[in-house]
Amino acid sequence: MSKTVQISSPKQFDDLLKSSKIVVTDFYADWCGPCKTIAPVYEQLSASLSRPNHITFVKVNVDTQKEIAAKHDITAMPTFMIFNQGQAVEKIKGADPRKLQAAVKKLAAEAEGGSSGFGASGSGSGWRTGDLPRGYSDVTDQVDLKGLELLNSDSEFGGVRILVDQSKPTGLQKGKAAAGKDKDWVESDTDEQLMLFMPFQSTLKVHTLQITSLPPPAEDDEEVPMRPKTVQIYINRPHILGFEEADDIPSTQAITLSEKDWDSTGTATLSLRFVKFQNVTSLVLFIVDGDGEGERVRVDRIRVIGETGEKRDPGKLEKVGDDHD
Fold first, then answer.
1. CATH code at position 264
2. Which residue intervals are annotated with compositional bias (Gly residues) in the record (predicted)?
């Protein structure tokens, strides 16, 4: 997964403006309180939306890169600027996470050639088919990436963070687009069970979950991983459950998937009993078994659809600092 780029020279910044279609820039200072407050939000956006040579997130320290700050008329911290094909198209002053998220996601959606499923009801998610439930949006970006945990996964495949990535799975790409790419999915290891812990940055109302699973066609004697069949969901657990522990705790909801539940993108929609998922701070997904006789289960992506509520650790954002000389 791409990481935020720390700018160390004007040339590096200029080169990125030329090589990446969209460049999202965080102008900050080490002494700036609001900069530190909003930094985790920026890093979350970077982790979920960065695309090599397409969408790049960078940070510019105004004290060490005064030439860049002066060129773009940066007078207060934090200031966020979005560049599209080298041209500034958005400038946001202050630590306003909602305004920052809305601006970045809107442009990212346009860059993907259509809606990315963020923020607006009725929109798809690029490679996904179908509309979101009316009145709800993709809230997968509220997953606390640092707290994600996955039990019984094979280390030869992608890490847990790939599950909540917004990128199109290589399983849906063909030819050169998929050739040589890393294994951007998860497979179980010793048996078909997987246990995923997803904590959230905000308290959510979760309406729907989507699981994408793209096992390849069977070839000769090669064992093909299975799609999930039985999924048990637990809410507001403080940590991941052990497999034996999950057997002793009633799930909030259990769902059994069948072949007809998987659409053309290999995605199954899990409709939740919404009344039970009103104040959710974390989810545990226990994939109990697969849809066949194999020993491995494959999961490519997971998507959370609902409403975002209050931050889990609410605190007043400081106002924008004094103008920087």
1. 2.60.120.470
2. 114-127
- Count of CB atoms situated within 10 Å of the CB of 149: 15
| Integer Cα distance of 251 and 90 in angstroms | 45
CATH of the domain at 56: 3.40.30.10
Torsion-angle region of 299 (φ positive above 0: left; ψ -120 to 50: alpha; else: beta)? beta
Q: Which residues are catalytic?
A: 32, 35
22-63 residue pLDDT tens: 999 999 999 999 999 999 999 988 888 888 778 899 999 999
In a domain, 130, yes or no: no
For 45, 82, 86, the CA distances from 40, given in Å and listed in that order, are 9, 18, 26
Last residue of a domain, one of 93, 111, 129: 111
Look at residues 94, 111, 128 and tell me which one is the last residue of a structural domain: 111
Residue 323 lies in a domain: no
Rounded Cα–Cα distance for residues 266 and 169 (Å): 10
Residues of the chain with pLDDT under 50: 1-2, 113-124, 176-177, 314-325
Report the domain count for the chain: 2
Pair 194, 30: CB distance under 8 Å: no
181 and 258 in a single domain? The answer is: yes
* Torsion angles phi and psi, residue 77, rounded to 5: -120, 145
> Which stretches does DSSP call E strand in the chain?
5-6, 22-28, 55-61, 79-84, 87-93, 137-138, 149-151, 186-187, 194-212, 228-235, 253-256, 267-271, 280-290, 298-299, 301-311
- Could you tell me which residues come within 8 angstroms of residue 33 by beta carbon, excluding any fewer than 6 positions away? 318, 321
Q: Report DSSP state, residue 188.
A: B
The verdict on residue 320 lying in a domain is no
Whether 126 maps to a domain, the answer reads no
Can you give the pLDDT at residue 311? 64
Find the domain containing 87 and state its range: 5-111
Do 217 and 150 lie in one domain? The reply is yes
Q: In whole angstroms, give the CA distance from residue 104 to residue 90.
A: 9
